[in-house]
Amino acid sequence: MVFARRLVSVLFALVTAFAASALGAGYFLADGAQWLDYIRVGLLAITTAWLAWGAVLGISGLFWGRGAAPAPRREVPTVKTAVLVPVYNEDPTKTFSHIAAMIDSLHSAGASQQFDFAVLSDTNSAEIAELEELWFARLKQEYGEKCQIFYRRRVTNPGKKAGNIADFIKTSGDLYEYMIILDADSLMEGATMIEMVHRMEEDPKLGLLQTLPKVIRARSFFGRAIQFSASYYSPIYSRGVAALQGNEGPFWGHNAITRTRAFAQSCGLPALPGKPPFGGHILSHDYVEAALLSRNGWTVRVDPDLTGSYEEGPDNVLDYAKRDRRWCQGNLQHGRLVAAPGLKPWSRFVFVQGIMAYIAAPLWALFLIAAIVAPAMKIIPDYFPQPGLPVFPRVMQENAVALLTGVLGLLIGPKLLIFLDGMLTRRNRTFGGNIRVFTGMVTEILCTSVLAPIMMLFQSRAVLQILSGIDGGWPAANREADKVPLAESWAASWWISVVGLVTLGAAWQLAPDYIFYILLIAGPQILAPFIISFTSHSSHSARSGLFQTAEEAAPAPVMKAQQAILARWRKEPEIVLEPLPASDVPLGQIVHN
Amino acid sequence: MVNGEKRAVVRRMIEQSGLPSAPLMMPDQVLVREKKSFRLRPLIHWLAVR
Asked: Within chain A, which residues score under 50 in pLDDT?
């Protein structure tokens, strides 16, 4: 059944690409064929196949996995689970408030003794490391009675996050049946963690279970648009992913539970031969770990019905682009692993999808260049192939209209269908009602349409940098980013304005008939510094109800608890510590012995 | 509590909160295919001899 679903989905993408190519070829070649037209048709086929693949995931999600989620089980698990919180130069007050809220949530469910939290620090800033120790002491003092909490800091960080997790397994893995892997900004309901353990217990072949984390706490216009999109559309798209996953589902690096022995046996990641960006440590380790678990016969699964799982996202375009640069390098690095021995074919296909997610941007850029240059390369047609009346080449305008409609349909169609589904199933009510959702959807589509040409250039630059051998390193995530001043935005994106101006100038000279369409792409690029700065400002949309999500309308108890703890800690930052009883034996040793 | 004492208490708490020792093996996986030697080399060698 999974095979059939995969086959139909792949065929849909291929047939759509073929139809787009046929329409494109009819239009491009109508006034005479030249080599550039064939390149345009090829680029159109690849990029349309990619768009169609995205659309098919959304449409599959509307038909698959629609049943109501079973109620989470309340029984306290009998096995021990480690909850891993890798941190890397994060704000410790905030990260530890997340941990405190999760401990409270587990404690309320009566299960906090079955879950041990481990803060795995890779922080290399001495200042932040000192703060981490101080705030850990407070966390331990206030919550240490309810739950075991460990702290370990690596002075050097080989293997980055994957190496951090591996170091935990090599030190303490034998104590735990399962590990819940989080990020510093992750938040999970205790009931969700308990249910995840039960699902692992009932399927001994299940190696890793991924939840779909909802984005929360966005403040800017950009962040709230992304948050709305993730909250409203992503559950449907992830059902589409689940429909095709079989035993080779995804791992997104956090908010997931894994069987410790399966992970240890399957996911030791060696450094790849050669230098970064293609050699060295594997950056996007999660996809590789999912593929390796599947290779060893373990099931990897995403369960979109698991609620109570949250994360935070970047609040402005520059932070989004920085994260994208890292992910781009990680995904392109997977090009070396597509042919790794023994992988399941679907795992290889997932690697190709990840690569396509970034290669698509420069391909669209090339298509745009070709579209501007092609009219100037046209040879004046021979109007009199035979003596007598002239023969005019037929302009296949209807092909162009059909093509444009089709591409827009692939981009917007699934979102419209999800909205209609939300009306019929009354899901829209949890997002503030049909009118509010419709307004949010239209604004989000406009916002992403304006940002898409800018992101196309950021991604194209990232791909070119990586192919030129430039390593992006491992920048810390800025989860508390404030608005981007215009000067900063200008410094980061002036080159996009220049590219936009050059594009518009070239279109003016070479393809004046298409100037309106080119303006839709070059216009946002020219205005990129303003758009980036404007969309980073704290949004009035929260007050007006625009982009309202279900999580905002009715925050989960763990979200409320985390906010309360953080507010209290920030109000009373002075840490009052009680003297400890003298002991020379580390607590960890006591637990183990 | 003065700063020095506080730092000592924090340090002690950190030391007492170290990870428990229960190691699990995590062998490195094979990710890259071994380069196969040129399969026609014996044939070329055979032809060269003749």
From this structure: 583-593
